[in-house]
């Protein structure tokens, strides 16, 4: 069946997204720039793909998978529409402005700065770690210059999830053979892929950057074309990533990241700082028990980040509005009356947001989003806590409440992550030390009294928790050096 003609300007998808123009097209379909009838001034990238009837269920399942992803280096997937009468499916994603890596290479005449190359590699490693850490792992499968977007402010995003798939170890082969010649791993031509396939593509991308765009496969000519100012650890890392045999590559991209950053810096701190380098950073605040002060802490954190710079949202997620309604009444002098949001001192408050609305919020270009999860009784909302750049648990070190925090830690031990942070309002130093010992976790901090959470003057109090975000502007400036 021939591919249907492209949609005309003014065509409306899902009674909401108005086609403005074609952004690009290829073998997998087309991408349109679309305006939003519900959010004036908001732009979306809508990917159109043809689907065989046998693929409908798989495509819909993968679209649902993508809508759950939350990472600063991934465009937010906001909507999905099942096949129309002509067999076209539509995936609505955040529109990313900027240049792709191929265009950037042309701008630099094929010689990007080495600091830029290393920083770019670290960003890509971080997002691949996130994708491969999903259950089951997600394999991007088409990492190439055209699918890496560089924003004017230095942000790095992976785009075009038309072929991203959940890895299925129990299957002998993928349903289809996909990837881009020159960047796809050898096994992809046999219809197979796993997380190491993305590692191969990263090696091909780095070789491309370090040979002036001339090579993406390791050959004697490619080795001779390598620029002489490369760090000594990078050349063997690229060669190993480009191994034909999967078992000869690195065990994971985390190993690659350690080789790229060989300066002995604390890896967790570096990763946290990297999360603040561009796009949206998410702070999720979860209360260990009702009345522990999690909302108070979330408010203070949001206003502290807003004062540091950048648009900030505070979202009351997954429960009926109560506290935020009272705050709106106090500050605006009247009930919300159906309003979706209100603002206090440069922070946008979103009361009683559901997951559908959360997708809209992530698409609005906020620098920081603070999620007030309350005690988070909903398992799907707890997923947002697990995805957050900074997951913060508010509890107590008091004798009559400390057991609740220990019980929570034991209950969630299988999902616990090293980046989890515990905050104990009003706790004394000895109580913090004792809780660190009992939890077996070093990231436990006291929070002093915060009498004015709206003031934004709690920088010192949040330094151990949010300190990595305070250096955001300096890190963004570093990335911009590569664009001069």
UniProtKB/TrEMBL annotation:
CDD domains: STKc_PknB_like. It is an enzyme of class 2 (transferase). Residues 17-272 form the Protein kinase domain. This is non-specific serine/threonine protein kinase. Its EC number is 2.7.11.1. The keyword Nucleotide-binding applies. InterPro entries: Kinase-like_dom_sf (IPR011009), P-loop_NTPase (IPR027417), Prot_kinase_dom (IPR000719), Protein_kinase_ATP_BS (IPR017441). Pfam families: Pkinase. SUPFAM superfamilies: P-loop containing nucleoside triphosphate hydrolases, Protein kinase-like (PK-like). It catalyses: L-threonyl-[protein] + ATP = O-phospho-L-threonyl-[protein] + ADP + H(+); L-seryl-[protein] + ATP = O-phospho-L-seryl-[protein] + ADP + H(+). One of its GO terms (molecular function) is protein serine/threonine kinase activity. ATP binds at residue 47. Keywords: ATP-binding, Kinase, Nucleotide-binding, Serine/threonine-protein kinase, Transferase. SMART domains: S_TKc (SM00220). Transmembrane segments: none annotated.
């Amino acid at each position: 069946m021939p591919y249907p003609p492209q949609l005309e300007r003014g065509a409306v998808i899902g009674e909401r997204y108005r086609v403005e123009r074609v952004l690009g097209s290829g073998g997998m379909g087309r991408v349109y720039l679309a305006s939003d009838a519900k959010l004036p001034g908001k732009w979306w990238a809508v990917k159109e793909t043809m689907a065989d009837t046998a693929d409908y269920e798989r495509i819909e399942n993968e679209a649902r998978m993508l809508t759950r992803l939350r990472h600063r280096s991934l465009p937010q997937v906001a909507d999905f529409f099942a096949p129309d009468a002509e067999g076209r499916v539509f995936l609505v994603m955040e529109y990313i402005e900027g240049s792709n890596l191929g265009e950037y290479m042309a701008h630099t005449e094929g010689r990007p700065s080495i600091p830029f190359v290393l920083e770019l590699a670290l960003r890509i490693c971080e997002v691949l770690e996130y994708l491969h850490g999903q259950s089951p792992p997600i394999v991007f499968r088409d990492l190439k210059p055209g699918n890496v977007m560089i924003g004017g402010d230095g942000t790095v995003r992976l785009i075009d999830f038309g072929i991203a798939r959940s890895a299925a170890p129990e299957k002998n082969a993928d349903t289809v053979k996909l990837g881009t010649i020159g960047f796809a791993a050898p096994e992809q031509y046999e219809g197979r892929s796993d997380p190491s396939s993305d590692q191969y593509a990263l090696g091909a991308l780095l070789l491309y950057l370090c040979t002036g765009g001339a090579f993406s496969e390791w050959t004697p000519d490619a080795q001779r074309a390598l620029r002489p100012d490369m760090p000594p650890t990078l050349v063997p890392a690229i060669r190993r990533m480009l191994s034909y045999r999967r078992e000869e590559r690195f065990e994971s991209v985390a190993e690659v990241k350690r080789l790229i950053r060989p300066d002995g810096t604390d890896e967790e701190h570096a990763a946290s700082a990297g999360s603040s380098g561009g796009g949206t950073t998410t702070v999720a605040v979860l209360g260990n028990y009702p009345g522990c002060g999690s909302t108070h802490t979330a408010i203070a954190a949001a206003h502290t980040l807003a004062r540091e710079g950048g648009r900030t949202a505070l979202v009351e997620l997954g429960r009926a509005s109560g506290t935020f309604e009272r705050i709106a009444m106090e500050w605006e002098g009247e009930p919300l009356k159906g309003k979706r949001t209100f603002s206090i001192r440069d922070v946008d408050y979103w009361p009683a947001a559901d997951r559908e609305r959360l997708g809209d919020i992530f698409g609005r270009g906020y620098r920081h989003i603070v999620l007030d999860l309350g005690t988070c009784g909903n398992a799907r909302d707890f997923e947002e806590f697990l995805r957050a750049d900074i997951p913060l648990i508010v509890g107590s070190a008091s004798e009559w409440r400390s057991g609740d925090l220990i019980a929570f830690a034991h209950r969630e031990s299988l999902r616990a992550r090293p980046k989890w942070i515990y905050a104990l309002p009003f706790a004394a130093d000895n109580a913090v030390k004792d809780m660190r010992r009992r939890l077996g976790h070093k990231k436990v901090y006291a929070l002093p009294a915060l009498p004015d959470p709206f003031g934004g003057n709690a920088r010192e109090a949040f330094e151990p928790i949010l300190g990595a975000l305070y250096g955001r502007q300096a890190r963004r400036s570093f990335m911009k050096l590569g664009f001069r």
